[in-house]
Design brief:
mainly alpha
């Protein structure tokens, strides 16, 4: 179980780094409001648990509340679409795993572009 948790933490860290690198540079006073991390799976799984641990640490480091928002459904499509439609301001993040890569191959008409 420890190996799974370490892998999930590493994956989430890479996702965050990738999201920050591809987004516009945040203002110097970022964050000025709560940050929401959408988890497109039900509570209790490894992605949810790791995201909650990281969210708690981010709250301590940033001095702003990090809200974990579970939005399960449609093989993670519900939560992923919510994040894709959110403003690209760095205040809404996605914590997911394999379905983000697999879904475009299984569902040809996704309501969002996973690469963007």
């Amino acid at each position: 179980m420890r190996l799974e948790a370490a892998f999930a933490a590493c994956t989430f860290g890479c996702m965050l780094a990738s999201a920050v690198a591809s987004a516009q540079a945040p203002p110097r006073d970022f964050p000025v409001k709560s940050v929401r991390i959408v988890v497109p799976v039900p509570p209790g799984g490894i992605v949810d648990v790791v995201t909650r641990v990281l969210g708690q640490r981010l709250t301590e480091v940033m001095g702003q509340t990090v809200i974990i928002d579970n939005r399960p459904g449609a093989s993670t499509i519900v939560g992923s679409e919510l994040v894709a439609r959110a403003p690209a301001d760095g205040y809404t993040l996605l914590s997911t795993s394999l379905p983000l890569v697999v879904n475009p191959n299984l569902h040809p008409r996704l309501p969002f572009d996973a690469e963007k």
